[in-house]
Amino acid sequence: MKIGYLGPKATFTEAAAALLFPSQPREPYDTIPDCIDAAAAGEIEAAVVPLENALEGSVNLTLDYLIHEQPLPIIGEIVVPIEQHLMVHPYFTPHWREVKEVYSHSHAIAQCRKFLHTVLKGAKQVPMTSTSAAAKFVSEHPHLPAAAIANRLAAEKYGLVIVQENVHDYDYNHTRFIVVSRRKEPLSPASPLYAGDKTTVVVMLPQDRPGALHQVLSAFAWRRLNLTKIESRPAKTGLGNYFFIIDIDAPMDDVLIPGAIAEIEALGCTVQLLGSYPYYFA
Amino acid sequence: MKIGYLGPKATFTEAAAALLFPSQPREPYDTIPDCIDAAAAGEIEAAVVPLENALEGSVNLTLDYLIHEQPLPIIGEIVVPIEQHLMVHPYFTPHWREVKEVYSHSHAIAQCRKFLHTVLKGAKQVPMTSTSAAAKFVSEHPHLPAAAIANRLAAEKYGLVIVQENVHDYDYNHTRFIVVSRRKEPLSPASPLYAGDKTTVVVMLPQDRPGALHQVLSAFAWRRLNLTKIESRPAKTGLGNYFFIIDIDAPMDDVLIPGAIAEIEALGCTVQLLGSYPYYFA
Which parts of the sequence are marked as the site Essential for prephenate dehydratase activity (chains A, B) (predicted)? Predict the structure, then answer.
């Protein structure tokens, strides 16, 4: 069965899907909701969508859609370093330092700012709708003195030559993707990329009052459950109301996490379990 | 003196800048770092950049850049509802239901998914680099059966007619913008949009250990300082290390907030003050 992902083809999302499901056919979807809906309808086995720091996806949308619209469980997560390369048409390889135009997604251009200001100073920066659209454009215009900034998958797909590797300014740039699926069992930890297990919950506070979040975190702290992520997000109900997305650095168990959830619910909070699943580092 | 903002023109960022600085000339910048750098160099009086949930900006970039690269103080914040409208060339107004192509930023297309699936079912959805680029394209191609999804400012700027207002799926969609400037004093609260004051700090934990965040929040909780936002973000130093961005719902004072910061530093954390400033609701 196919694996769906947020398209277009040859983006970082497809690269993440290929790492997790190397032997399955892949299908791009135009939007995050379309991709999640296809997984809910069973048209695809699983959906791979960006969760954090993605170039192409509206990142808040993924969790909002899972929380409010389509409550499919998260069955895995993968963190992929963002490696941007400068690539040109093969015809242009010897003269790449003379490129006059650089095509890429605007966020990728921003990520490669130092490189562009030094090595390709003066070249026009042209935003495209995705890094792979930029690579496609350059491959189709061999007569232009143009380069694209995109990932390795895009260079391979569109027959471009990488003339400078890792032109992004900072090495700590990563993107986080999650896998959601109708099937209840999480992904297998039998992968060399496997790094651990975690559990994600959403906590809605009963009202906005000083210290409420502190009480919620106490329930985890005294059980020595480590939290690796906590993020407040405005609730649908209007400005000033927040819910919290919390990642617990442990798999679901029979005692500790259910105990913490029961205690938080006793405080008057609503708790929604988004999944307990393995995570992978690429 | 000019006010800088993340361009292009006629986006939600320019709308936010116009609300805060109605009588000053405005200058668009291509990237968030360029805009912040111009404010740091004193070329512009202040920079208006997206902080959360923006269509055009890489949102994480704003705080990362302020924290790691260019520590300008935040002097104000404005929350603007995202109102997307369907607009066409005046020539095409009577026949707008027959449009065959809809141009917009991919995130805006995602936000108007239900409308597009019902009212304009079958119309091709074409992603552009920004909502204002989509409006510009439609204004320049009056012969095409095309519509754009963009904001009111774009309709005015490019002479398009809004044929359906508020075509976005959810009313609770807002974007948050901040103002950064070399000048130390915050924006004036003398505005009908003024909604309160807050203080933003960044806390780096000494090491990733269970309950550390809980201790940090205790310092605020027992002082009854309400937190309206808390967000963990991966640190530059690698995967698994986090820092926390915390919004305190109070202006900087002489006792409470300095006391909380001193207590958190005594725990071995590093605390960085990003600003204490008024916030506005549009």
Answer: 175
DSSP string, A243-261: EEEEEESS---SSHHHHHH
Contact: B32, A231; criterion CB under 8 Å: no
pLDDT band at A232 (very low <50, low <70, confident <90, very high): confident
The answer, yes or no, to whether residue B124 has pLDDT greater than 90, is yes
**Are A96 and A138 within 8 A, CB to CB?**
no
Please tell me whether the interface predicted TM-score (ipTM) of this complex is above 0.85.
Answer: no
How far is residue A2's CA from residue A28's CA, in Å, rounded to a whole number?
10
Pair type for strands B74-81 and B174-180: antiparallel
DSSP 3-state of B234:
strand
> CATH number of B85-164: 3.30.70.1150, 3.40.190.10, 3.30.360.10, 3.90.1150.10?
3.40.190.10
What would you measure as the largest C-alpha separation in chain A, in angstroms? 68
Which pLDDT does position A208 carry in this prediction? 59
Query: Tell me: the pLDDT tens digits for B7-24?
Result: 889 988 999 999 999 999
Topology match between the domains B3-81+173-180 and B85-164: yes
From CA A95, how far away is CA B193, in angstroms rounded?
55
What SS3 class is residue A12? helix
How many residues appear in chain B? Answer: 282
Per residue in A138-171, pLDDT tens?
Answer: 999 999 999 999 999 999 999 999 999 999 987 7
* CATH class given for the domain over A3-82+173-180: alpha beta
Q: Domain B195-281 falls in which CATH fold?
A: Alpha-Beta Plaits (3.30.70)
Instruction: Kindly list the domain boundaries of chain B, sorted by start residue.
Output: 3-81+173-180, 85-164, 195-281
For residue B131, what is the nearest residue in chain A, using CA coordinates? A129
Distance from CA of B146 to the nearest CA of A (A): 18
Strand pairing of B227-234 and B242-248? antiparallel
pLDDT per position as a tens digit, A58-71: 567 788 889 888 99
